[in-house]
Amino acid sequence: MANYSFENDNRTTNGIVKKKKIPNFWCCISPKSDEEKQRKQINAKLKRDEKVDKATHRLLLLGAGESGKSTVVKQMKILHNPFTQQERVDKIPDIKRNIHDSLTKRRSNPPEAKLLNDAVSPYAVRTKHRAIAFNEEPRAT
Q1: From CA 57, how far away is CA 80, in angstroms rounded?
Q2: CA 134 from chain center: how many Å?
Q3: Does residue 92 fall inside a structural domain?
Q4: Which of 102, 131, 135, 140 has the smallest set of CB atoms within 10 Å of its CB?
Q5: Contact call for residues 6 and 23 (beta carbons, < 8 A)
């Protein structure tokens, strides 16, 4: 069998005369302790987290109330990170409530109820069911 040599910690070499023989320096190595294994796992996780943190882009949105800051964030989420199945399921009650509210308002306040007189508002646009004035105030609901 061939001779193999290994370099140990103090830069000296130990040879293996036969394939089944163990070099002298291997006898001194003890199995890793649980603390050392845990420390290595923690360090590896910290390195992974650091890579993720460096790859993360941060954006500070400043603006007055109701200026659309959260809308921008929601649009970015839709474009870059689509909703998960759980987020979709969580939105079902909101969608149903919005549909119910819209149908209720439509039924209690039909557009045919108040037609604007064209003489009253020269800036009115007639649609299929009602006239819409550009200067009219929104109706209270």
Answers
A1: 12
A2: 40
A3: yes
A4: 140
A5: yes
What's the structural domain count of the chain? Answer: 1
Please give the structure tokens belonging to residue 45: 């996780």
Ranges in the chain, pLDDT < 70 = 1-31, 109-141
Residue 41 located in a structural domain: no
The answer as to whether 52 is a domain residue is no
Q: What's the 3-state SS for 13-80? A: EEEECCCCCCCHHHHHCCCCCHHHHHHHHHHHHHHHHHHHHHHCCCCCCCCCCCCCHHHHHHHHHHHH
What does each C-alpha distance from 131 to 29, 102, 119 come to in angstroms? 89, 20, 12
What is the distance between the alpha carbons of residues 108 and 55, in angstroms, rounded to a whole number? 52
For the record, the structure tokens of 130 come out as 């009602």
Domain encompassing residue 93: 79-104
pLDDT for residue 44 = 96
The answer to whether 125 and 134 have CB atoms below 8 angstroms apart is yes
DSSP assignment of 13-25, as one string?
Answer: EEEESSTTPPPGG
